[in-house]
Amino acid sequence: AIIHNLKDTQDIRFMGNLMVHMPLTCVCLNISNLALCGMPFLAGFYSKDLILEVVSMDFINIIIFLLFFVSTGLTVCYSFRLCYYSITGDFNFYSLHSLNDEGWIMLKSMLAMLMFVIFSGSMLMWLIFPTPIMICLPMELKMLALFVSVIGAWVGYELAKFSVSWVSSSLKFYSYSYFFGFMWFMPNISTFSMNYIPLMLSYNLFKNFDQGWNEYFGGQGMYMNLKKNSMFLQFLQNN
């Protein structure tokens, strides 16, 4: 709903003060973000916290262990950054563009899914695991998930306050902003290369063969040459 209201853009820097313009949608978005972060007693908490504790209790590689917790911190980081942009600040889109929260079909579906976000985690936990799972961890590892989440939330808050436009105007960090803005060149590796290379190959084939020498020496060119020669011979025979 927010993307549709912002003319199909996904840049969160255009957001701001959505709680005033789209209150119900903003509430659903932020509660879902908190569930994604693993906020206690929401849907994501019962799976994410259990996965992290089982990983901490198991004998795994230190690199995999670090990847689990770093990814958790980054998830909390961008989720809190999105919450900050959507709730606070000024509306950064077009000044004449107005938002509305009147799509009741979409609102009903979002509110229905919001109920699942709030209650489904605990209900499924009680149904799937009839007895509590024994997790034996030292206090440091037990609190590591909470510590990583708090650090990620703080980093997301600081990044939300960071003035990107001022730094970009000086062009000092252009390469870094380009690198992170393109998702670590993921579009060039995945979708862009898969679409660009076949399309450019077909364009070059069309330009060099269909619209090039193949047009003159192929079937169409031979037909035109034979037609001109036959017309010239017909002209000579008639005279």
UniProtKB/TrEMBL annotation:
Top-level EC class: translocase
Organism: Carabus macrocephalus barcelecoanus
Gene Ontology cellular component annotations, sorted alphabetically: mitochondrial inner membrane
Keyword Plastid: no
Name of encoding gene: nd5
Official protein name in the record: NADH-ubiquinone oxidoreductase chain 5
Single Gene Ontology BP annotation: electron transport coupled proton transport
Family matches, as Pfam families: NADH5_C, Proton_antipo_M
Membrane association type: Multi-pass membrane protein
Molecular-function annotations in GO: NADH dehydrogenase (ubiquinone) activity; NADH dehydrogenase activity
Domain NADH:quinone oxidoreductase/Mrp antiporter transmembrane intervals: 2-75
EC number: 7.1.1.2
Membrane-crossing residue ranges in chain numbering: 20-47, 59-87, 107-129, 141-157, 177-197
Coiled-coil ranges from the UniProt annotation: none
Catalysed reaction, written as an equation: a ubiquinone + NADH + 5 H(+)(in) = a ubiquinol + NAD(+) + 4 H(+)(out)
